[in-house]
Amino acid sequence: MDDLVQQLGRLPGIGRKSAERLAYHLLRVPKAEALALADAIRRVRENVRYCETCFNLSEGPACEVCRDPQRDPTRLCIVEQPRDLMSLEQAGVYRGLYHVLLGRIAPLDGIGPDQLTIDPLVERVRTGNFQEVIMATNPTLEGDGTSLFISNQLSEFSVNVTRLARGITAGSVLEYANKEILADALTGRQKL
Ligand SMILES: [Zn+2]
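That is the input. Now the predicted structure with zinc ion docked in place:
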């Protein structure tokens, strides 16, 4: 029991008290339910990796979006994290491809451009057939800085760089924005 409480307490946002509550909860629910959680954790860690093309989460070398022949291969939307991609997908208005940076440039945290997937991104744009690159980094200081850095890297290519319209309040985070706002931000995107 101590071990479980300790493991749960390591999760983000879970303090000692919540960890204890969760542990007791797992003891009380039917055994199958508790084991299903354990199985889900094991499966996700053993099978899920990053897509070799776009760095979205994937169960094989190519993710669901990259494998879908219906997606528009001339548009590329750049997001910080796989969960941002999921939020945009749920908004349901974008049919192009994605590139997940796996973070943002954050000098204060010691995160530089080479720790992100910017090199493979530039290579993708160089060899691909993209007409538009949509910057969908978070509207924060670091997100904007990252977006600026990338658009400079892409300036040698003849591709239109746009960004999401600012329906999202500056400083708010993409994953928490609601569907309608994201849909508006996507349709109202502007040239960067
Ligand atoms: Zn992919």
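The chain has a mean pLDDT of 92.
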